[in-house]
């Protein structure tokens, strides 16, 4: 805690200071600094593993006894208070469900509620000291900012457990080290200890141990290995054993959570009669091709995917969404832990979970919340096999959406340099027509034009560049609202001059007998939510926005949405478009404030957690169907169709509905989120010859 002496606390201290010459300099008390009154007699520490020095399970010593804090009602505000107690400036996150392992002893605090401004945790509300109905499986942890409070000096220091810990794990191929393709799926198990890398004795080694190691390395499962070959090879090599007696259950997210023993420095005989432990892992579909196991993976039947991740910036991370009754929904974070998160990660072809995220850390979803209080053992093949509660609307909100970060295999892609520089000196273009889904590990896995490079000229105008970001927006159209608000209007031509100026009518309108007659319009409302982790902003700045006098507004994007009427086989028979002449926060979730408003030449965009509503009665919020014949059709809406603004997920940018038009009325039904790339985008790509596809299936 920060020292606070009497002369800082009281006006009498000022008088004493004036009378005491020793106060003229910096005070250097000979006794330990006085603790804050609220925390008198308390000590705090971070414990558990695996962790970094500024994170861990929070433990409090009271009346000489160390204990923990239950994660019920725990918030980031409580984490701020505790991090300051520990000498850090603030918290960057918190954990639940004993992420750093269960503690022992008393559970000192439960239902802890802080505003975040308290000077001491004793000023926060709770059930009272020692009054708890929790178990140590619900111990809370904090992640503090790695920045210490100025002048923080007292006995309340972070206490690091002195026992050895396994920091990292790797597989070392027995032969051909450095020449094997990545990721490495089989080899000798090596663990990183404080004094370097060591091998593990295979005495008592089990398939459960292999499963934990494979999970840490980003692989969903393990397989049997030819131990006879490796034992024969081991007789010709020298070994450095640092670990033995490993006994895992198989559900642990980290080897450190297993029972294990370290060799002491003075142990002269290590692993007598044994050999180095060997593990062989099975890669998930995304990594199978690069490891030479693609054919084996494809031979296995693939069922319908019922779990997916959304909103993440990297593979293997995101908000958990599950499919129920043909509808995708989220998972409530109550009881969400590493075991449940690991089941999700392995189900999707990744390793065990690195983090079980709560509090909508990967953005808030929309629509249904299907599951709550998921309790997995860690052995289940699917999240749906875990015990859980079906949820009602009152049980949970999207601010409690669960997420995961999974362990991924090391592929070495980050060491392959993709240069981005001023292309003034560029002399050759080597790729064109590149089209990726976003899940590829490198550009050469994306579909492209192959050896036939369509872009023959070089220079700034013809070369691609990127700006990278850890977070991005994610737009999603409220499909049910489209279905509920669709109707036909016959609008007189004399009311459509502005719409004609902005190309919101079909081509046949140009030859109409203006201002007489009318156009038949399919109108509907569109409500576009930003479910990502960054605001959606127009690519162009305000200085380049185009003023449209007729409607009296600015266009910040040329095209924001495409509206199309398609035949069942995909042929377009009518189209409309929506320029983003006003991107703003129409409404937001309860805990989110509006940031963007178009009035008075304001900034345009959609804040995370907000939505922009284009009502059905706004100009150009329609498709001109004057020339469409009666029949069955598909209504398609594509947001950000030219991919001008970065999003973490483009697969939810298209919405499709079934339509029946009898020449007088229209029925719109079965509206649902469709594929990422519109038919128009596919056709535009296919215009180029020499298309090849190197995409991983």
UniProtKB/TrEMBL annotation:
Chemical reaction(s) catalysed: L-lysyl-[protein] + O2 + H2O = (S)-2-amino-6-oxohexanoyl-[protein] + H2O2 + NH4(+)
A single BP term in Gene Ontology: collagen fibril organization
Function (record text): Mediates the post-translational oxidative deamination of lysine residues on target proteins leading to the formation of deaminated lysine (allysine).
Signal peptide per UniProt: 1-25
EC number: 1.4.3.13
GO molecular function: copper ion binding; protein-lysine 6-oxidase activity
Subcellular localization, as worded in the UniProt entry: Nucleus; Secreted, Extracellular space
Full protein name: Lysyl oxidase homolog
Region annotated Disordered, chain positions: 289-315
Keyword Signal annotated: yes
Similarity comment: Belongs to the lysyl oxidase family.
Disulfides per UniProt: 70-134, 83-144, 114-124, 248-258, 332-396, 345-406, 376-386, 436-446
Assigned keywords, A-Z: Copper, Disulfide bond, LTQ, Metal-binding, Nucleus, Oxidoreductase, Secreted, Signal, TPQ
Organism the protein comes from: Ailuropoda melanoleuca
UniProt cross-references to InterPro entries, sorted A to Z: LOX-like_protein (IPR050912), Lysyl_oxidase (IPR001695), Lysyl_oxidase_CS (IPR019828), SRCR (IPR001190), SRCR-like_dom_sf (IPR036772)
Record field: compositional bias (Low complexity): 290-302
GO CC, alphabetical: extracellular space; membrane; nucleus
Posttranslational mods: The lysine tyrosylquinone cross-link (LTQ) is generated by condensation of the epsilon-amino group of a lysine with a topaquinone produced by oxidation of tyrosine.
Domain SRCR residue range list: 44-145, 169-282, 307-407, 425-469
Gene3D superfamilies to which the protein is assigned, alphabetical: SRCR-like domain
Pfam families: Lysyl_oxidase, SRCR
Required cofactor(s): Cu cation
């Amino acid at each position: 805690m920060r020292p606070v002496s009497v002369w800082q606390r009281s006006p009498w201290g000022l008088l004493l200071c004036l009378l005491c010459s020793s106060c003229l300099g910096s005070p250097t008390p000979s006794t330990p600094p006085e603790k804050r009154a609220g925390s008198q007699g308390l000590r705090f520490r971070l414990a558990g593993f695996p962790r970094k020095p500024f994170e861990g399970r929070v433990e409090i010593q009271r009346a000489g006894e160390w204990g923990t804090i239950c994660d019920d009602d725990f918030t980031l505000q409580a984490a701020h208070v505790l991090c300051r107690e520990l000498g850090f400036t603030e918290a960057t996150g918190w954990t639940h469900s004993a992420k750093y392992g269960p503690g022992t002893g008393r559970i000192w605090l439960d239902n802890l509620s802080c505003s975040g401004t308290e000077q001491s945790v004793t000023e926060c509300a709770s059930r009272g000291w020692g009054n708890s109905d929790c178990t140590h499986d619900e111990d809370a942890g904090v992640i503090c900012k790695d920045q210490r409070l100025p002048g923080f000096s007292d006995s309340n220091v972070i206490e690091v457990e002195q026992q050895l810990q396994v920091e990292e794990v790797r597989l070392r191929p027995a032969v051909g080290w450095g020449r094997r393709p990545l990721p490495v799926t089989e080899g000798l198990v090596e663990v990183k200890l404080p004094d370097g890398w060591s091998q593990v004795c295979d005495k008592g080694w089990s398939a459960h141990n292999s499963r934990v190691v494979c999970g840490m390395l980003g692989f969903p499962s393990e397989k049997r290995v030819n131990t006879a070959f490796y034992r024969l090879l081991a007789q010709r090599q020298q070994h450095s054993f640092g670990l033995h007696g490993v006994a895992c259950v198989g559900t642990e997210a980290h080897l450190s959570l297993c029972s294990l023993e370290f060799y002491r420095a003075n142990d002269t005989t290590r692993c007598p009669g044994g050999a180095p432990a060997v593990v062989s892992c099975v890669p998930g579909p995304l990594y199978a091709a690069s490891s030479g196991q693609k054919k084996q993976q494809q031979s296995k039947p693939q069922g319908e995917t019922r779990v997916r991740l959304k909103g993440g910036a990297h593979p293997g991370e995101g908000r958990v969404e599950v499919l129920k009754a043909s509808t995708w929904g989220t998972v409530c974070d109550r009881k969400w832990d590493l075991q449940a998160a690991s089941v999700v990660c392995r189900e999707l072809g990744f390793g065990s979970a690195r983090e079980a995220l709560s509090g909508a850390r990967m953005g808030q979803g929309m629509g249904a919340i299907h599951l709550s209080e998921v309790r997995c053992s860690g052995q289940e093949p699917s999240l749906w096999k875990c015990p859980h509660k079906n949820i009602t609307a009152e049980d949970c909100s999207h601010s409690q959406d669960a997420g995961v970060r999974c362990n991924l295999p090391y592929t070495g892609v980050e060491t392959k340099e993709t240069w981005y520089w001023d292309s003034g000196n560029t002399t050759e273009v080597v790729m064109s027509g590149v089209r990726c889904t976003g899940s590829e590990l490198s550009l050469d896995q994306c579909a492209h034009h192959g050896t036939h490079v369509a872009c023959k000229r070089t220079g700034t105008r013809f070369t691609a560049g990127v700006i990278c970001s850890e977070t991005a927006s994610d737009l999603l159209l409220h499909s049910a609202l489209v279905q509920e608000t669709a109707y036909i209007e016959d609008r007189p031509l004399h009311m459509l001059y502005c719409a004609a100026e902005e190309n919101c009518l079909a081509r046949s309108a140009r030859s109409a007998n203006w201002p007489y007659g009318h156009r038949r319009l399919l109108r509907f409302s569109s409500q576009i939510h930003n479910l990502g982790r960054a605001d959606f902003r127009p690519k162009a700045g305000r200085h380049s926005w185009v003023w449209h006098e007729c409607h009296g507004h600015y266009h910040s994007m040329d095209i924001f949405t495409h509206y199309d009427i398609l035949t069942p086989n995909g042929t377009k028979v009518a189209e409309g478009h929506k320029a983003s002449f006003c991107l703003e926060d129409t409404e937001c979730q309860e805990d989110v404030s509006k940031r963007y408003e178009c009035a008075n030449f304001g900034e345009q965009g959609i804040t995370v957690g907000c939505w922009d509503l284009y009502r059905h009665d706004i100009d150009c919020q329609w498709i001109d169907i004057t020339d469409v014949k009666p029949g069955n059709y598909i209504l398609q809406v594509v947001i950000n169709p030219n991919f001008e603004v970065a999003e973490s997920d483009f697969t939810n940018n298209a919405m499709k509905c079934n339509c029946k038009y009898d020449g007088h009325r229209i029925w719109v039904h079965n509206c649902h989120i469709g594929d990422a790339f519109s038919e128009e985008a596919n056709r535009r790509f296919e215009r180029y010859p020499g298309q090849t596809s190197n995409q991983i299936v």
